[in-house]
Amino acid sequence: MTKTFSVFKNGNYTKLFLANLTSHMGTVIGLTAFMFYLLDRFTNQPIYATINEMMYSLPTLFVFLLIGVFADRMDRQKIAVYSDWIRAILSICFLAAIWIGWIPLIFFIIFLRSAVQKFFFPAEQAMVQGILKEHEYTTAAGLNQMVNSLFMLFGSALGAVAYWTVGIEGAIIVDTISFVISALLLHACNIPESVRLPNGKKSLRDLQISMVLKDFREGMIYILGNRLLLSLIVGFIVFGIVNGGFSVILIFMLKYELAKETYEQMSVILGIIFGIGVLIGSIFASIIAQKVKLYKLAILGLLMCGLITALSVNSPSIIIFFSLLFVVGLFLPFINVALGGWIPKIVDPKMMGRVQGWLDPLTMLAQTITLGVIAVTYPTIVKIEGLYWLVGGCLMIVAIFYAIVLPKYEKQHTTNLSKQKVQEEPSV
Hints:
Elements: H1 2-5, H2 11-41, H3 47-57, H4 60-73, H5 76-100, H6 103-117, H7 120-131, H8 137-165, H9 167-187, H10 193-196, H11 209-224, H12 227-258, H13 263-288, H14 294-312, H15 318-346, H16 352-377, H17 384-424
Helix pairs in contact: 2-7, 2-8, 2-9, 3-6, 3-16, 4-11, 4-16, 5-6, 5-7, 5-9, 7-16, 8-9, 8-13, 8-15, 11-16, 12-13, 12-15, 12-16, 12-17, 13-15, 14-15, 14-17
């Protein structure tokens, strides 16, 4: 445990970690409150709740060409700072749109805010990769997972409490304040120029369409040339389907099956229970990741999460449903810590943004398509059972795929690295 938190001795990492925390808060609370707002106002139209989630994932398909290029060619610190400031301004516009009450305008602002957010994570992750040592990557991935679990614990609860007490307006104000704090923390970081600008100084004028397309193509060639990385990214595409399903199936299960009258309160309790599971799992995953191969950790997490998710739809009571989701929460960090700690180890720091520039849109494309299918087919064609089987089945399919290909490619990658080091050693 002491080793896990030793990375906070690095002042830059501490600020980046806190900036990620507050920026994440600014995203989660308002959208959670808005989900409740939509379900309250349009009770018989669950399509609005699904569209709300689509407005989070869909923007990636419009900015994916720029995300990775910006993170690799522009000042990474400024990208993250500007992302926070712009989202703070858009949150105020979001608030005004709520007062006007025009749903298309509200969704459009959510779309814009989500589009700007997509630039934050690749830039922030690339800076984290640059300021930490390789053996600290898995630790950082574990801490990121703990952040996610804290938002499962408190994000939904804070969003719900804000909605109940001061309304949707109060939740959006919290969003705005969170983005401002994140921007100030990022501005206070002293990141070396080699990390902020790994490919030299560039201006917006330099980012011509030809350069953008060239960098995007280089990212594709880099991924296709690394079979281990390509295999991991294939799994991430399926994770997009899982994320799309998970973003709505839990609240649908509560509202339309297990807790029709008290789904808001139950969703907060579920968030707390699931978050506690993820928090505990994050601690164990960070410890286990130091002792076993990362692909074994990921495969175990995928199998357990997939199996239990598929089984949870048959829960006869809300207590059993909560218990099963707690177990899913325990094993979910095994996946995220393994993959989050592995990818920085196998990606060249100069290519990290361009790799993320492919990974994020592929994941979000799958997520958006899934949400679109759910919006059209649920509940008239596909029932809640089908959604849970889809999510659980996808997780188990990825586990089987990883079990087949990752051991072989991991061994090849390790062998190639060893040969490369031998070649680089000066002859006596």
